[in-house]
Amino acid sequence: MAHQTVRYAPGLPDDSRAAVAEPTPSCPVEITLAALRGRWTTLVVRELLKGEHTFTQLAQALPALSDKVLTDRLAQLADSGVLVRDRRPGWPPRTSYRLTPRGHRLGPVLQALWDWGAAGGDTDWGAAENDSGRGAAEDDSG
Amino acid sequence: MAHQTVRYAPGLPDDSRAAVAEPTPSCPVEITLAALRGRWTTLVVRELLKGEHTFTQLAQALPALSDKVLTDRLAQLADSGVLVRDRRPGWPPRTSYRLTPRGHRLGPVLQALWDWGAAGGDTDWGAAENDSGRGAAEDDSG
DNA sequence: CAGCATCCATTCAGATACTG
DNA sequence: CAGTATCTGAATGGATGCTG
Q1: Contacting residues for B71 by C-beta, under 8 A, at least 6 apart
Q2: Residue A15 has what pLDDT?
Q3: Based on CB atoms within 10 Å of each CB, which residue in A29, A59, A75, B129 is the most buried?
Q4: Nearest residue for D5, CA–C1'
Q5: What is the pTM of this model?
């Protein structure tokens, strides 16, 4: 397989932001990682991918998650434009959370993360000296 | 393998590991995030996607990265099966690092992270109430 | 050259207690 | 019900000094 000649990295856009010499918040990769950063974050997103949830429903779906961290994650994800809060008036208070379109687009991202992580158990990666065989991760899932 | 029916969330496999109630190391998503965890990690991978590098070359490409953290990242990535160390005998010592096939497969993952993060600046995500578009961003311009 | 050992500042997660 | 405030322990990142 012929390696690229003038290209930088396969799979990476030819964008000036791809050439940063240190972690900067304006890098798209950093933006996404910042949105997903921290424990529990992806699980909260996964729950929301199933549909709208209230605070309590999320807490029930993830029993080991403290309300403080849940609050943190929800704020973080709202701040990243992943979800929106829908606070309804009256008593008792009921707030539901749902993904934005942008939040839904996290689906493919999580899928990519899943695929890479799932491929490790099956394929060899201990005796990997040669990188010429560039097999795509052909998991049928999804 | 025929598990096409996605009952839970769009984009997530119908795997028992997709139903975990707390962050567990065996979850594929966690595996990938663990491999990419920490500051500088994706930048080190990006450098290596360009080709083989020595320790010093990596340090030069990322000047603000301390050797301690670089060592940490390299160990972490080697542990995740992303790269291999090629230590050559003689003096001065020269160690080069290169991606494994598995490491190269991180390209699409980084691409997915990039795409999502890059889409934020352009599209609306403030007034997002309704989800309709589920377009995969496959801009592979680089 | 390519690291490892040690110390220190900052961040993070979880627990507990309290409120509109 | 849906949070906020405060505290503690653990993990992380970075600086400095030393070695095969």
Answers
A1: none
A2: 84
A3: A29
A4: A68
A5: 0.83
